[in-house]
Amino acid sequence: MQNVKTIARLASEPVKKRIASRVLNDKAELLSGALAGEILELLEARGVLIFPEIGFTEAEQIAFTQTLGTPAPEGSDGRVTAKVSLDARENPEAAEFLKGSLYWHIDGTNSDVPIHASLLTCKVPAPQGGNTGFCNTYAAWDDLPQEEKAAYDGRRVVHAPWASLAYYDPEPRLQTLRAMQALGEKELPLVWKHESGRKSLILGCTARNVVGLEHKESAALLAGLREWATSPAFSYSHAWRAGDLVMWDNTGTMHRAEAYDPMCGRLMMRTKLEGQEAFA
After folding, report:
1. 3-class secondary-structure state, position 209
2. What are the beta bridge partners of residue 236?
3. Which of 8, 35, 195, 204 has CA atoms 20 to 30 A from the CA of 163?
4. pLDDT tens readout for residues 219-234
5. How far, in Å, are 64, 138, 158, 184 from residue 36 at the CA level?
6. Residue 264 domain boundaries
7. Dihedral sign for Cα atoms in the order 125, 131, 132, 134
8. What is the CATH number of the domain that holds 235?
């Protein structure tokens, strides 16, 4: 009798109605690459995928990322993994910049083509706090009243990394301000019309102003939409355990780290998938 090899199928369960699913397959099934297509489909549908305590090593996380697409470089040296920590002892080059990660954002708003997804493994969880929050900006758009969709569609927003300073350093030194301003700024649509036909909101702490509106009206519009998109119906807060991997669709979600003691030892390892779709 000829042996028949069983083909793994994706096993998952929803976490909340409008966002996040847990993936329950084992490490060998994930690393095989056989589930890559289903994983990417589920990611687009749910925004956030959780692989509970999967315990990938650095090499395994790189290999898993490669099954899903092309890993995006994390530095000019070509490396594809990065430590994520607010502790300057662990992350001396980026710890200060990462303070902006404590506020809702989309990665790459100063790029033509943002990264497709991020994959974050918890190496050391914070003893208190340190969750990561996510919100589904596809679902937030879908559930807006029709009259609001008509008012927002076609609006443009200037995004600038230096705008995020207002959240954590409202009186920055001139040197700090100029260093952040040197990262550039970009005018983006408020509503992203994806190649799939779906739409999502482009918001976050890099959003400086809505083009064509007075500052007061612009600020109110951005704050109101952020409040809507991050409301409980569309958001999920992940409490980390060592070994957890969480993957999120950077083109249809926002995320933020939740407050924790920067000196507590919290440490994450990140890989990213190169983007395939320009803001439009």
Report:
1. strand
2. 134
3. 195
4. 999 999 999 999 999 9
5. 9, 22, 35, 35
6. 12-273
7. positive
8. 3.60.130.10
Instruction: Give the pLDDT confidence of 238-264 residue by residue, as tens digits.
Output: 999 999 999 999 999 999 999 999 899
For residues 118-134, average pLDDT: 97
Residue 66's alpha-carbon distances to 81, 197, 223, 235, 272, in angstroms, are: 12, 27, 37, 28, 10
Give dist(CA 29, CA 31) in Å, integer.
6
131 falls within a domain: yes
Sheet-wide strand order for 245-249:
12-14, 21-23, 48-51, 245-249, 117-124, 267-273, 82-84
Q: What burial letters (b/e) apply to 66-102, b meaning 16+ CB within 10 Å?
A: bbbbebbebeeeeebbbbbbbbeebbeebbeebbbbb
- DSSP assignments along 227-280, one per residue: HHHTSTTTEEEE---TT-EEEEETTTEEEEEPP--TTS--EEEEEEEPP-S---
Q: Is residue 231 part of a domain?
A: yes
Question: What is the total count of domains within the chain?
Answer: 1
**Rounded distance between C-alpha atoms, residue 43 and residue 46, angstroms:** 5
Confidence check: pLDDT of 184 > 90? yes
- Indicate whether 279 belongs to any domain: no
Distance CA 12, CA 24 (A): 6
Q: Nearest CA to 14 among 41, 46, 36, 40?
A: 46
Give the C-alpha separation, 112 to 155, whole Å.
Answer: 18
> What pTM does this model have?
0.93
Q: How far, in Å, CA of 114 to CA of 156, rounded?
A: 17
Distance (Å, whole) CA 265 – CA 237:
20
Assess if residue 1 is contained within a domain.
no
